[in-house]
Design a protein that fits this description.
Layout: H1 5-32, H2 35-42, H3 52-88, E1 94-97, E2 102-103, E3 108-109, H4 111-126, E4 130-134, H5 146-150, H6 157-171, E5 180-187, E6 190-197, E7 205-208, E8 211-218, E9 221-225, H7 227-235
Length: 239
């Protein structure tokens, strides 16, 4: 059964908060257990008005509040980002895909769709980056990820991301995964995947059983370059 996306979002926010709190509390313990810092503070005039203990716990509380605000604000910003992407439509740095692997016309898995997704991502890596929304068609109609997830062994966002990672590693390479971020969002009661891609540090080739191809973005399209054109294009990065 597909996991509800709202529960996934809540768990993700809670997880991020817990991780942030662990880091903050670890720093707090280091400071609290350090007699050197306490001794240094007592030499200050401020120590006659505010004890070191109050300063410690006050600082910890302030950091915790700041972390909560940061995590929640970042989550809300991600939601506003995808709505803005859909509002703007497809362009040089944005593209929509109806699905990742499920062919709605043939009603079956189609590996060519996976290649099409990876081709777009490779083009973003080789250009100025961009955003790819999976689960939305060219007319900006939300189709959702349900057919894709049901075609996988694990019918969940984790299963989707695991399969995405496997395809990405095989076609583009693990060294480029650091430039790609996946997040899941709820649109019109359907789950969609936002793939945010940064420009890569070196050329990214798409590898298939037919060989290697090099793609870039030209307007709202993905264009293949001949191998003889790749060197000149890459050289232009340094200019």
């Amino acid at each position: 059964m597909i996991q509800p996306i709202r529960n996934k979002k809540t768990l993700r926010i809670v997880r991020n908060l817990v991780l942030a709190e662990v880091v903050a509390y670890s720093v707090f313990l280091v400071v609290a257990l350090s007699a050197h810092w306490a001794h240094l503070y007592r030499s200050l005039a401020l120590s006659h008005y505010i004890s070191f203990t109050i300063l410690e716990f006050g600082g910890l509380a302030t950091v915790q509040i700041a972390l909560v605000i940061l995590v929640v604000t970042r989550s809300l910003k991600e939601e506003s980002d995808i709505h803005e992407i859909l509002r703007m439509g497809e362009h040089e740095r944005a593209e929509f895909k109806t699905s990742f692997r499920w062919d709605v016309q043939r009603n079956q898995v189609n590996k060519d769709l996976e290649r099409s997704v990876m081709k777009t991502i490779a083009a973003f890596l080789n250009s100025e980056g961009g955003s790819l929304v999976i689960g939305v068609d060219d007319q900006r109609q939300v189709r959702g990820l349900t057919p894709d997830m049901l075609s996988l062994t694990k019918h969940s966002h984790d299963g989707f991301e695991n399969h995405f990672n496997n395809v990405f590693v095989a076609m583009i390479g693990p060294e480029f995964r650091q430039f790609v971020k996946l997040s899941f969002h709820d649109l019109n009661a359907e789950s969609v995947c936002l793939v945010q891609v940064d420009r890569a540090h070196r050329p990214a080739y798409l590898t298939t059983d037919k060989g290697e191809d090099f793609f870039i973005r030209t307007g709202n399209a993905t264009t293949s370059l001949k191998m003889s054109e790749v060197a000149a294009y890459v050289a232009s990065w340094k200019n």
